[in-house]
Amino acid sequence: MNKPGRKGLTRLWDATRYSRKGLSAAWQHEEAFRQEVTLALILFPSAFWLGQTALERIALIIPVVLVVIVELINSAIEAAIDRIGTEKHPLSGQAKDIGSAAVLMSLLLCLTSWGLIIVDRFF
């Protein structure tokens, strides 16, 4: 079923504007997002120095991008839960904990990828 609304380039323009607003809100309100973006800005150039092949560079860059993506999703989950209400509810806590676990898993994936390539290159 098609949703009513704008189509074509207008829809694309609106979607881009909403995404910019989302990135801005995450930067403004989420300390973890700022830390992970800062880390990404350091790791991206390092990936081109550390990775000796295109596949190694991709294996270094993709997990870093994944961490940022998962953090954005986690922040969206937290914002939606907080919007519902401030009272404690087991399902709200569970949703936030699962989102946090997803971030942890993406960070462990990133650490593993970088660790394996560093060990391969230097040891």
UniProtKB/TrEMBL annotation:
Gene Ontology annotations of biological process type: phosphatidic acid biosynthetic process
Keyword Cell membrane recorded: yes
List of catalytic residues: 71 (proton acceptor)
Keyword Iron: no
Cellular component terms per the entry's GO annotation: plasma membrane
Binding positions (ATP): 11, 18, 30, 78, 87-89, 96-97
Matching InterPro entries: DAGK, DAGK_prok, DAGK_sf
Gene3D superfamilies: 1.10.287.3610
Residues passing through the membrane, by range: 58-77, 98-119
Descriptive protein name: Diacylglycerol kinase
Membrane topology category: Multi-pass membrane protein
PANTHER family, per database record: DIACYLGLYCEROL KINASE (PTHR34299)
Reaction(s) the record says it catalyses: a 1,2-diacyl-sn-glycerol + ATP = a 1,2-diacyl-sn-glycero-3-phosphate + ADP + H(+)
Binding site for a divalent metal cation: 30, 78
One MF term in the entry's GO annotations: ATP-dependent diacylglycerol kinase activity
